[in-house]
Amino acid sequence: MAPQPTAQQVIEGQRQDWNRVACGWEKWDRLFDEQMTCLNHRLVADARLRTGIRVLDLGSGTGYPALLAAQTVGTTGSVVGMDLAEQMLAAADRKAKRLGLTNTTFRTGDVTCLPFDANSFDAVTSRFCLMFLPEIPKAVAEIARVLKPGAWVAAAVWSSPDKNPSIGLSMAAIKQVIELPPPDPTAPGIFRLAKPGELADMLQQAGFVDVTDQEFLAEWSYASAEEYYTSLMEIAAPVQNLMAKLTDAQKQDVKQRITQAASNYRRGDRITFPMAVRMVSGRKPL
Ligand SMILES: C[S@@+](CC[C@H](N)C(=O)[O-])C[C@H]1O[C@@H](n2cnc3c(N)ncnc32)[C@H](O)[C@@H]1O
Which atom of ligand 1 is nearest to 134's Cα? Predict the structure, then answer.
């Protein structure tokens, strides 16, 4: 069996992966922004964002939910968005400038070691980042440290692959073509925090109170199976990594299988997938 990568190796791999797909995220920004904006609003509500407060967004990528957080807290508040991948953050920064936001700073770094003072933020948000960390409890402890007493953290992580076929079916198609080792349920990855209660338990163990863990159901849709396939390959770094193991002929085979499977989700003139996201929040005790 191959040795497990160290935490540092995982983090470096993540940095390279997400930098590699940053231009894909910018290219497809409008499609995903329009369809996932409900998640940003949910995070803003769960983290109790309001005018004038200081917010930290972990794994901001190309600016979600940092940009909505910045609009919510207004010019008397501020948002720091952190991410490993400087190219994702460069895209976020361009968007912040286009939106005329002057209260947002993007900073590169590993969210497992936060370079901030204790009790220095009024809220923490995070969308689709925590499951990629090799040491999630360490990051949760850091969140607890930097939040002020009584302040909220709100995070979104993917629920299970059967409820997220737009991601799950690509993995299933690749597995039909090459043999992959059985996934280690504790290894960082898209579905690492899909199990109900898993992230919530970590928050409780770090001392958070009023912890909630709910599955949020939504949909996302594409103009065609081809658009779905192309966007997936250009933004989903973990799927790209699996595709890189295939020969050209196998890639063609996988593409055929993915677009065929996606066609089963045709509704009217679009391909519409269900989406299930775990929304987990908690409050640092007073
Ligand atoms: C799927 S993207 C999500 C980006 C954005 N929050 C969104 O929802 O559109 C995951 C992001 O987490 C970042 N990330 C992964 N591990 C990280 C770590 N240890 N520290 C900081 N950022 C990390 C990646 O660089 C990437 O930008």
Answer: 19
